[in-house]
Design brief:
Length: 122
């Protein structure tokens, strides 16, 4: 009785060993699994990068020792701020909606101005 020749899912080389083995070695297994996860991993990595960049831009807008600042939209855009990405929102009692990038947030004001705030640490 001839055993069916199994092949590595990554490189196609013949596999020897256990019947449930799918890869010829650890390198092929790691490469295969990394390639399967690459799309979602890259998406998450890119979003996290944008969030961190937004946070750093907001932080740079507030003078040292202060907790808030008023900045024009153009300044944020010039620095590369992306309004598409934020971690959470907060609506105060007055109904104002703040968008946060981790611990720094912004509130849209009139005439393309924004109030940038440093959130209270929990």
């Amino acid at each position: 009785m001839l055993a069916e020749q199994r092949q590595c899912l990554h490189c196609g080389k013949p596999i020897q060993g256990r019947l449930d083995k799918k890869f010829c070695d650890d390198s092929c297994r790691n490469t295969y699994n990394n390639s399967q996860n690459a799309i979602s991993t890259n998406l998450i990595r890119n979003i996290n990068h944008a969030l961190k960049k937004n946070r750093n831009i907001l932080e740079s807008c507030i003078p040292t020792g202060e907790v808030l600042a008023k900045v024009p939209k153009e300044k944020l855009q010039t620095k590369g701020f992306s309004f598409r990405y934020y971690t959470h929102t907060y609506q105060n009692k007055k109904g104002n909606l703040y968008h946060y990038c981790y611990d720094y947030g912004y509130l849209e004001l009139d005439n393309d101005w924004f109030l940038v705030v440093k959130g209270k640490e929990s």
